[in-house]
Amino acid sequence: MNLKKKTKWFVTILIIFLISIVIGYNYVYKSHKTTNELTTNYIGKSSDFMLIVNTNSSNWVNKVVELSGKITEKDSLGIIIDNSIFCQFIHKTNSDNLQLNQQITIKGIVIGYDDLLEELKLNQCIIKN
């Protein structure tokens, strides 16, 4: 083989290698969907949803729900709806504009049910209204 053919082969292999790296990087590090973009698996009242979760909570882990209820507690980490659902927000939400006993609708991902506290935990919550 002469020098031109070797150079062409080297450049071709190098280009294929670089393209493979870019495609692999984009596949592994693709951006995650936000809570707004995820498909909702349940929409309804928090009290109705708690009745469903009490029968079988493991089916609801990592599912997206949109729940309505009254704010019964609030702190710097999140809010509690109807004394039974803890909602942790995506961003540090200024809870000063949220009032106790205020009707609210939130959307979040179920991360589990705490049997000891009898509390459902939602993560990455956003306020819908």
Overview of this protein structure:
The chain contains 2 helices and 6 strands. It is of the alpha/beta class and 129 residues long. The protein starts with a helix and ends with a strand.
Shape: elongated
- Major sheet: arrangement of strands: 2-3-4-6-5
Compressed to H and E, one letter per element, the order equals HEHEEEEE
Q: Summarize the amount of helix as a percent range.
A: 25-40%
Q: Write down the Rg.
A: 24 Å
Largest sheet: 5 strands, mixed, barrel
Cα separation of the termini: 71 Å
Helix tally? 2
Roughly what fraction of the amino acids lie in strands? 25-35%
- Low-pLDDT windows of residues: none
Structural class: alpha/beta
Number of β-strand runs: 6
Mean pLDDT: 87
Task: Sum this structure up briefly.
This protein has 129 residues and is α/β, with parallel strands linked by helices. It has 2 helices and 6 strands; from the N terminus they run αβαβββββ.
